[in-house]
Amino acid sequence: MKILIADDDQISRMITKAAVEQSGHDCIVAVDGDSAWQLFQEHRPEAVVTDLMMPGLNGLDLCRAIRAAEKDRYTYVILVTSHGSRKDVLAGMEAGADDYVTKPLDPFSLHIRLLAAQRITSLHADLARYRSALTEQARTDPLTKVHNRLKLSEDLGDLHDGSHGYCLAMVDVDNFKSYNDIYGHQAGDAALVAIAATLSGEIRATDAVYRFGGEEFLLLLREQSAASAEKVMERVRSAVHDLRIEHSGDPDGVLTISAGIAASSGGHPAGTEQLLREADLALYAAKAAGRNRVAFAHNFYAE
């Protein structure tokens, strides 16, 4: 572990540093509370061994600052007191310390506490990874591995400033019901996975793909006008066609997609719900015009 030692007494610092290094850990040393806080922010150690009374931030203030700064990680804090009184120990625990030792420092006592610190911080790190994985899983479509509607709602909620401009493109796989009827649902799932991968591969890293429904996807194209988004979606449509996924029930003989585009810009600062409706209407127009094409809402065409 990386351990921060904070103590204004030189002899105490040397004893604590020797004990920490004998336990096999790396040391960062601070001579007062203010420098300890700065070093903590720079190095983010797994554990802190801090004196109770120091110039600048005292041990209690340092504990509070550490706890207030923590998010997905946990720092194990051991408070060192010269007195070991119940009042000092209680004040330290209430400030956020996990354990305490008394001066003069017993290296064995500190070693035992550092073993506990290693277990606790490791457990918290595992929990943080699990939380991150579960958060990602909750926002990912299990079949296609693109974003789902929960992530779409969150991302659309972040799009407050329409002046930057963005486009929504509603995409539907043409004649997909007949594809499932002819080739079976397993083949249908495989086709959706391939199409989703193609959609993701044809857009920028700043854009995003979401599974909107059964065979419907939504693309969020940031900082795009309807004209530039149309070029993107024509490229996407062509890439899906070039997959050459055989479909005997389609006039083209392969699976294709249709797309409808809606744009938000300075001249048309529409809300996301309105843009979703407009994209859906544009998609309907593309379907009505013969499928395997891209359409956009003419009333807000913006360069």
In words, what does this structure look like?
By secondary structure, this protein is α/β, with parallel strands linked by helices. Helices cover 48% and strands 18% of the residues. It has 10 helices and 10 strands. The chain has helices at 10-22, 33-43, 59-69, 86-95, 107-138, 149-157, 176-183, 185-201, 226-241, 272-288, and strands spanning 2-6, 26-30, 47-51, 76-81, 99-102, 166-173, 208-211, 216-222, 257-264, 294-296. The strands form 2 sheets. The chain has a 5-stranded parallel beta sheet with strand order 2-1-3-4-5, sandwiched between helices. The protein has a 5-stranded mixed beta sheet with strand order 7-8-6-9-10, sandwiched between helices. β1 (2-6), α1 (10-22) and β2 (26-30) form a beta-alpha-beta unit. α1 (10-22) crosses α5 (107-138) and α7 packs across α8. The two termini are 55 Å apart. Residues 299-303 have low confidence and may be disordered.
The major beta sheet can be summarized as:
5 strands, parallel
Task: Name the helicity range.
Answer: 40-55%
What ranges have pLDDT less than 50 throughout 5 or more consecutive residues? 299-303
Rough outline = elongated
Biggest sheet strand line-up: 2-1-3-4-5
Question: In percent terms, what proportion of residues is strand?
Answer: 15-25%
Tally the beta strands: 10
Mean pLDDT: 90
What's the total helix number?
10
Computed over alpha carbons, the radius of gyration is 29 Å
Distance between the first and last residues' Cα: 55 Å
Helix- and strand-based class?
A: alpha/beta
